[in-house]
Hints:
The chain has 229 residues and is α+β, with helices and mostly antiparallel strands. It contains six helices and four strands.
Amino acid sequence: MSQHRKVSTKKYLLAFILTIIIFTGGIFIGILLEDARLNSSEQTILNEKITLRSLQLQQEYIESGLADCGTLQQVLDSNINELGKKVAQVIEYDKKSVFNQDEFELQLQDYFLTQMQFLFLANEVDQQCPQDSVKVLYFYDENQFDTQGNILDYLRKLFGDNVLVFSFDSTFRQEPMISVLMNSYDIKEFPSVVVGDTVLQGHSTVEVLIEELCDEFKRIDSKLPDQCS
């Protein structure tokens, strides 16, 4: 009986040690994965900052009368849309992060600030160059059943670079400029979409948004996309 107890104790001890090793290994792997995700998101933000700086320099050329508006508009449109695609990765990493939550929050804040800089730069470019695209602001909350973002993704693909979408999380309190933007448009309900100067509170259908987009293209006296004909 004593021998049997010794064998059982050894088994339990071995099982305990193996459990500790597996658990520790899992934590270590999780840390490595989060570090890799963090490095990836940092690279994304750095790339966009470099692009933004390049656009700012090109804008200075516009003001000097030496730059090509068409080229600048193409670069601006392309990078704004690319930034929107990449932030989905950062947000997904943020939801899954355990050990680097603060770092991912800073990455998100940096993203939202970079996006605002693109928005303000786009407005400045509009003052110097003919408008050929419509800017859309999208304010959302944490409602997992909200499909407004999916609708805007569809419209962005449908209209291509003719539509620029800037998305902002209304619950992200770390960046006060988001609240400033919401107050300037008197946003009271989520989701909300701003097309030009038109504020649409609550969920907006594809049909409603297409109509608003086409009206805005007419207002800015831009060439109407095929989707508006």
